[in-house]
C-alpha cells in the first residue's frame, strides 16, 4: 500500500491492485452496486447513427467473426453481419434477451467479479463497445479476455466522448479523447500477453457528431 497526501490534505492510498495507475483512478462517484444502476431497462443507443455505423464497419474491416464474445453488451451489438456465435455479457437481462444477434446471453457483473465464466480459448474474438470506461478492475478483465481467446484472437474496444459520468471511473473523466486511447492501450499492455495495441479514430476528424475511437490488439500465442 502506498500512502500520499492529496491537495485537500486527505490521505489517499493506492494498492498493488491499481496496477501502477494513480490512487483513486478506478473510483467512481456512484459506488452503489451496478445492478442498481443497470437494473432499469435502457432500450436506447448510446452513440449516434454515424458512430454505430463506424463500429460495424470496423468489425467488418477487422474480420470479427466466428465465436465472438461481446462484453458489457445490451440489446444491440452493431455487427453488419452477425457472427456465427455471439455470446453477450452485460447487466440487464431484458436488454440482452432483445439482442437479436446473440446466440447466448449472460448477466454478470464484471466489477463484482472480473473473472469470465467461460473455458480457456472459448472465443475467436471479443468486443466491448462504449463501456470500457465503467470497468473498475480492467486489468483483471483484460487478462480474462486473453484467457478465453484463441491464439491470435482479436479484442476490440470502442468508445466515444459520452458516458454515464457517475459510473465512469475518475481516471477516465479526468482525461480527454487522446488520453482515453492511451488508457485503453495501457490496459492491454499492463494485462500482458497482447500484441502492441493499435489506436484509431474511426469517424472523420473534425466533423459534427459523436466521434468513434477504437483500440485493439490480438492475443499472443502462448
Ligand atoms: C453505455 S452501455 C453500452 C451497451 C452496448 N455495449 C452498446 O454498444 O450499446 C454500457 C453497458 O455496460 C454494461 N455494464 C456496465 N457495468 C457493467 C458491469 N459491472 N459488468 C458487466 N457489464 C456492465 C451495461 O449492462 C450496459 O449495457
Summary tags:
single chain, 222 residues, alpha/beta, seven-stranded mixed β-sheet, two-stranded antiparallel sheet, 6 helices, disordered N terminus, binds S-adenosylmethionine
Fold and architecture overview:
The protein has helices at residues 34-38, 49-61, 93-97, 138-148, 170-173, 177-191; strands at 2-5, 11-14, 67-71, 85-90, 104-107, 123-129, 149-159, 198-201, 213-218. The chain is an alpha/beta fold. A 7-stranded mixed sheet has the order 5-4-3-6-7-9-8. A two-stranded antiparallel ribbon has the order 1-2. Helix 3 links the parallel strand 4 (85-90) and strand 5. Helix 4 crosses helix 6. The chain is globular. The model is unreliable at 1-13 (pLDDT under 50).
Task: Provide a brief overview of the structure.
This protein has helices spanning 34-38, 49-61, 93-97, 138-148, 170-173, 177-191, and strands at residues 2-5, 11-14, 67-71, 85-90, 104-107, 123-129, 149-159, 198-201, 213-218. The protein has 222 residues and is an alpha/beta fold. The protein binds S-adenosylmethionine.
